[in-house]
Amino acid sequence: MDYFAKSTLPFILSVASVFLIFNKNYTDAFIDGIKSGMDTTINILPTLIILMCATRMLSASGFLGALTEFLTPVTTFLHIPPEIVSIIVMRPISGSGCTALIDNLFSSSGPDSFASLCASIIMGSSDTIFFTLFMYFGAAGVKKTRYAVAASFLTLIFCVTLSVMLANLFFK
To answer: Among candidates 78, 146, 79, 90, which has minimal Cα distance to 122?
Structure first.
């Protein structure tokens, strides 16, 4: 089985190379695909740079920390652990920043703590809203997002609520 797993990718690449070498249509399609991919990359690059700069600016300015402190009483009332408020705030903005926060949470309270379990469920049930919307809408050239942002945040609220409920149901 190990030999099969190791030889599958080279086999697929070899077969694809043979098709590309001997069939002009496949080669043209391959080159057109590369051109299309490069055009897409060039189109979304400014959006990606702006998003990365905005994420770093929000983190460095202390705004996320202040927002986390502001939301803590509300989340405590809703029985959401205070340790994961910063994760909930960061989740729509940056996936890698959220991963770093979860790593810190695991180090400080342990991976089996209630807060860590809630945070893990949240990470598995939601996605970075702004990154995803900016990338997809930027690549497609969509200027008016209509209800996409509102629907995304409602989904995030649902995911957080359900994550805490599931963690309470199964782990408390």
So the answer is: 90
Q: From CA 105, how far away is CA 116, in angstroms rounded?
A: 7
Residue 159 near residue 125, CB atoms below 8 Å: yes
Ordered per-residue pLDDT tens for the chain, 172 residues = 678 878 888 898 888 888 777 777 777 888 898 899 898 888 878 877 887 787 778 778 888 778 888 888 888 888 888 889 888 888 888 888 888 889 989 999 999 999 999 999 999 988 888 888 877 887 777 888 889 889 999 999 999 999 999 988 998 7
Of 43, 160, 153, the closest CA to residue 93 belongs to 153
Task: Please state the pTM of the whole predicted model.
Answer: 0.68
Please report the DSSP string for 115-162 in residue order: HHHHHHHHHHH---HHHHHHHHHHHHT----TTHHHHHHHHHHHHHHH
